[in-house]
Write a structure and sequence with these properties.
43% of the residues lie in helices and 22% in strands. The termini are far apart. The longest helix has 17 residues. The N terminus and C terminus are likely disordered. It is built from six helices and four strands, in the order ααβαβααββα. The protein has a four-stranded mixed beta sheet.
């Protein structure tokens, strides 16, 4: 009887201060916290990827699915280019039914594929979309789409800039 009472009490109490709501900021902060622990640069929030993530979420809502590939065969990466984000590397994390950012992050870090996306040193940017419930109908918790990317320009420009720097004549010493 006491166990049942404690369980009911625990379920009805508000989330403690150590648990945070799932927001764009809490998801980005959680991913960057674990990246920092491994010496990786933080992900930047990119408005183009955020728009792509929101369009991706809307597509799943409109068609009533929750998957990395749509029922008509489209992969998540088709949402990047319409928003002007040409990429050299890209990935996607999905999550549904989570109530707190901490449980969401713990779950992603326990999943090899999700962890690999979060910890991928090639990714520089991300866009995050969040809705209450599910894309497939009423459900508890939140659904989250994170689109990761590295801009194509960074991939193309970096070697060109290094080549130019190595061919540049040495400047005259200052007097």
């Amino acid at each position: 009887m006491l166990r049942k009472l404690l369980l009911v009490l625990a379920m009805t109490l508000p989330l403690s201060a150590q648990h945070s709501d799932i927001t764009i900021n809490s998801v980005l902060s959680g991913m960057n916290r674990v990246r920092k622990e491994k010496g990786l640069v933080p992900l930047r929030e990119d408005s183009r990827l955020e728009a792509a993530a929101n369009d991706r979420m809307k597509d799943m809502e409109d068609l009533g699915y929750w998957a990395h590939v749509s029922p008509d065969g489209r992969e998540p990466f088709v949402w990047y280019r319409p928003h002007g984000y040409d990429f050299s590397s890209a990935g996607e994390n999905l999550a549904s039914g989570f109530e707190t950012a901490e449980v969401l992050m713990d779950s992603w870090m326990e999943s090899p594929g999700h962890r690999e996306n979060i910890m991928n040193p090639l990714y520089a940017d991300c866009g995050i979309a969040i809705i209450e419930g599910s894309t497939t109908g009423p459900a508890a918790g939140k659904s989250v789409v994170v689109l990761f990317g590295r801009p194509l320009v960074a991939y193309v420009e970096e070697p060109r800039i290094r080549r130019q720097a190595s061919k540049a004549p040495a400047s005259a010493p200052r007097q």
